[in-house]
Amino acid sequence: MMIKHSGEVLEERSSLKGTKGCTLRWLIAEKDGAEHYAMRLFELQPGGLIPVHTHEDTEHEIFIVEGTAILDDSKDKIIVKKSDVLFVQPGDKHSFINNSAMPFKFICVIPII
Description:
By secondary structure, this protein is mainly beta. It is built from no helices and 9 strands.
């Protein structure tokens, strides 16, 4: 078993092109011994953006930890907030826009391929 504090995990900028004001921490990853799933903590600053994108071969699960943002799935713009849970299926388009005055934080679980 491994226990660590999320604040001690290296914070890095998102590498997705067009992203603005977004950092992430790999809370659980392959380097920690995970074989099947990775857990990431994202923080999107006020005015921040994760542009519309898809993951063709992988699903991921998202839990909103703090704040509110707009989820854009290229059809609708939906407000998501603390304690909401999202299931993003392979091929689902999605984007987050933080139009609030507070940081927006979410946990994203993805399969390790």
